[in-house]
Specification:
heterodimer, A: about 325 residues, alpha/beta, Elongation Factor Tu (Ef-tu), domain 3, Rossmann fold, Ubiquitin-like (UB roll), 3 domains, five-stranded parallel beta sheet, B: about 210 residues, 2 domains, 4 helices, about 25% strand, elongated
């Protein structure tokens, strides 16, 4: 993915759907249909602020059948690196944004016998689009949606319309707990589980499913990690023959891009594996923050996912 | 001889998947030896796992004495409750009723001749069981199930390199090209250019 493949869109509507979440509707500048996508897809929103460029992934929550608009929901992050605050505070109806084409890393399994959808908070967004694909009723599904309180239940009305009796809501404020173990214990063969939301929820779903003998091919989840902060370090790009300084509050990928070197990427959240880069030399250790490399691959330090991972070292040489 | 055709299935010796919660073992003929090994491994891992294990076995041989069919090879090691059949089709029909009420966390083990494995895999696929939930070991006859690419009829128990199609009577070359969907090897007419002129017919799948 590079700047040549982005689309220019205009914000056509903004709605505050919970105290923390804003819902943005985007249309192509000029009004042409937007590229097709499937439920579970995300786009990268590119934001050029005076200080720097942000590229954040957001799931598309609208219907894949309506290509006159894309819909995203943005939660205002308390420890934002700037992207979500920029969208919340500076973007108005009529503002223009640059986005990358949709990519799906969280699609529904097409031959599943049942879908079990589990969402927490703003993690409901990809599942809203997946629900659109389940409207033909050919495959049974259940949706379990956990939120802090009724006022934090984004899109509750839309969910009730799309999921009907298959929707179950859980409010922390009323002490309603989602019993993941009980839920996963009784699922028929051929069920696929999809989890999106806070790290704790996803970790619990994945660990419980594995403990109950669910094979990896039936467990799906999506969590876009924001690049964590860390110590500043320096990287040398061997093929481009240049050094790049990575400050503590910017990712390796962002710093490489700022130096004018393009790295292929899709998710920018440590999930897809697309930006995997070979490490040629290292005199310290890598700080792997991705969910893509296996533990053995992480230990070997042969490659790094620059979108979220960093290094603690004097010298890191990358095959770029 | 290794085949150059990628679709030709290869199988590994069966081993217990201790990550599974429920275990369904399906065996035909000589496959009992493989299932015994899995049962032993499951018990070694956790004796209680036998309570969540079901065994279906068919001894197939039409000539077998009634006593041989009734003998339960799994009682030797103390496993009770194996369901015994006289042929693979009846076994798989029963397996379907079990899969219909099975839960996620189930592992399926298949042992026997390749045509049995193929039909069992077709059944498992109908329940959206993926590769990481199924294990299969080939034991016993290498006889092939052949799908005629001309009339689509199936010919069972093929042991020769060339066979007459049970449907259209064409002479078919039995290829290594295997269809997982059809659970059969492809058979293609061998004497299209010069009808009746056949290469030597040899028994190579015994």
């Amino acid at each position: 993915m590079n700047s040549a493949q982005t689309l220019n869109v205009v914000v056509t509507a903004i709605e505050q759907v919970t105290p923390l979440i804003k819902h943005f509707t985007l249309a192509a500048v000029g009004g042409d249909p937007l590229p097709a996508f499937s439920g579970g897809s995300h786009i990268i929103v590119v934001m050029h602020t005076p200080a720097r460029a942000h590229r954040n992934p957001y799931s598309l929550l609208g219907s894949p059948r309506c290509l006159d608009r894309y819909e995203i929901a943005v939660r205002r992050m308390e420890e934002s690196r700037g992207g979500s605050h920029y969208l919340h505070d500076h973007i108005r109806v009529g503002s223009r944004l640059e986005i990358a084409h949709p990519v799906n890393l969280f699609g529904l399994d097409k031959i599943a016998r049942k879908h079990l959808l589990i969402a927490g908070g703003v993690g409901i967004t990809p599942i809203l689009a997946q629900l659109e694909e389940l409207q033909d009723g050919s495959t049974p599904f259940e949706l379990h949606y956990a939120v802090r309180s009724p006022q934090h239940a984004a899109f509750a009305q839309r969910l009730r319309e799309r999921a009907g009796a298959s929707l179950r809501m859980y409010y922390d404020s009323e002490n309603q707990k989602l019993d993941i173990d009980a839920l996963l214990s009784g699922q028929p063969l051929g069920t696929h589980v999809y989890a999106c939301g806070p790290a704790g929820l996803i970790d619990a779903v994945v660990a419980t499913a594995r403990n109950l003998g669910w094979p990896g091919s039936h467990i799906h989840w999506e969590r876009f990690a924001a690049p964590p902060v860390g110590d500043a370090f320096e990287a040398y790009l061997a093929r481009s023959q240049r050094s790049v300084r990575i400050p503590s509050d910017r990712s390796l990928l962002e710093s490489i891009e700022a130096a004018g070197v393009e790295v292929p990427y899709l998710c920018r959240g440590g999930v897809c594996g697309y930006c995997r880069t070979r490490v040629l030399e290292l005199d310290g250790e890598l700080v792997h923050n991705d969910h893509f490399l296996s533990d053995a691959e992480k230990a070997s330090a042969a490659s790094i996912m620059p979108c979220v991972s960093r290094a603690r070292c004097e010298r890191l040489v990358l095959d770029l | 001889m290794m085949s150059a055709v990628k679709s030709k299935p290869s199988y590994l010796p069966l081993a217990a998947d201790t990550g599974g919660r429920y275990h369904l073992l399906l065996g035909l003929a000589e496959g009992s030896a493989c299932l015994l090994r899995v049962l032993q491994e499951l018990q070694n891992f956790a004796p209680a796992s036998w309570q969540r294990t079901q065994v279906l076995f068919a001894s197939t041989r039409a000539s077998a004495a009634a006593a041989e069919i009734k003998a339960d090879p799994f009682e030797e090691i103390g496993f009770e409750g194996a369901v015994l059949f006289t042929d693979g089709a009846a076994l798989l029909a029963h397996a379907r009723t079990i899969l219909e009420r099975s839960l996620m966390g189930t592992r399926v083990y298949i042992a026997g001749p390749e045509s049995f494995i193929g039909r069992a895999l077709q059944l498992a696929a109908a329940f959206n069981l993926n590769k990481d939930e199924i294990r299969a070991e080939h034991i016993g006859t290498a006889a092939r199930r052949v799908h005629c690419v001309h009339c689509r009829a199936g010919t069972e128990d093929v042991r020769t390199n060339i066979v007459r199609c049970s449907g259209c009577s064409r002479w078919l070359l039995v290829r290594d090209h295997y269809s997982h969907r059809l659970a059969a090897y492809m058979g293609v007419i061998v004497d299209a250019e010069a009808p009746g002129e056949l290469p030597p017919i040899r028994e190579i799948y015994s």
